[in-house]
Amino acid sequence: MDIMNMFGKMKEVQSRMKDAQETLSTVTETGESGAGLVKVTVNGLKNVLKIEIDSELIKPDDREMLQDLIVAAINKAMANVEPKAREHLRQATEGLLPNIPGLNLDGLM
Q: Which CATH code, of 3.10.180.10, 3.30.1310.10, 3.65.10.10, 3.30.1120.10, is assigned to 27-93?
């Protein structure tokens, strides 16, 4: 592979990566805590889209527990969306560059 071809491929990778990053908002994941009593949905941009709380949890006495469950659900959703976002970006740039040992594009996300 000549150097000019490689630069052309890099420009295409950058373009596809930009397009894929712009569509990360469509990649979603939901995390649950408290056996499904609290659910949080996030997108590939790591924005919280929705929080669902079972009505039996909404009691003044349980405020601290509810806060802990919300944090746990958000953390789970964020952890679960990370591999989906990486896969989304990988698919967007698949086949553009040869398998070069040591070339890691993870930092572009």
A: 3.30.1310.10
